[in-house]
Amino acid sequence: MEQLRVNVSSHKHFILSGFDELGALRPVLFIPFFIMFVVSLSANSLLLYVIVSQRSLHSPMCILIAGMACVDLSLPLFFVPNMLLSFLFDWRGISLIGCLVQIYFVHLLGAFQSTLLVWMALDRYFAICTPLYYHERMALPRFLKFMIPVLIRNAVLVSVVVSLAGSLPFCFRNVINHCFCEHMALVDLACGNTAINSLVGLISVFLIPVADFIIITVSYVVIFSSVLRSGRSGVRALHTCITHIVVISVSLTIILTAFLSYRIRNGLPAPIRVFFSTMYLLFPSCFNPIIYGVRTHEIRQHILKTLTCFGTLSKL
Description:
Blueprint: H1 2-8, E1 13-16, H2 30-53, H3 60-74, H4 80-89, E2 93-95, H5 96-129, H6 134-137, H7 140-166, E3 175-176, H8 183-187, H9 195-230, H10 232-263, H11 270-295, H12 297-315
Parallel strand pairs: 1-3
Antiparallel strand pairs: 1-2
């Protein structure tokens, strides 16, 4: 009977209260986040268009970059529009189902970002350490052996995390101190036992980003060792890895900062925690297409040609 009462009183509607501490200044946040949103959509759309439209860019690495652009284009769509409406019109409500859907896709796409970085590291490993077998090992049938198990891992772990969160009773508060539905921010509102949620969440962290980081690190250690043994030609080949190392370093720095901000929450103001948690999702979506477009010579040349063509057509 007690369990029945808890379930009946469980909240099905939540209020997102991120940056409430700013008071009347909160609507001003619409401007910087809207600018970042537009940059993310336009930069990733341009990068994706250039790679798809140019047959010379249909190499395995460029296809992986196009995959990253798809993820970076899709991820902000699941939380930024709702956040911008909240800033501008104070629309803060979200249903439990909407919250769980948002958590699912944000975490699934975030996991896919990490997975793409692993595939890029493996691509560089095959290209530099085993160049004679590169096209054979990066052929689609063989590459599917790397893709499918990792995609299944991501989908299963994220589904379990979201399912466990959705089964919790929320009978105390329904105010989420965030701008979008974040897994632990929702779980913190539960009045039931959340030990399993915390454990599964921790396991998913170790099996997705941590495991991916270990694979990436091992790949680049082997690459650097191979380059040091091969001499000057290897050093020239190493330049192709710098772009990915920059992207990985920036992504890991932001993710680590966001993770630590929730672990030392008593030492940080709430708006700072929410800011870092938002940036670790939104900033890479703006940064990745720019760094790939600038540092990858072939892509940069085609982007400049495309922009020149658009500029010429606009004058007609």
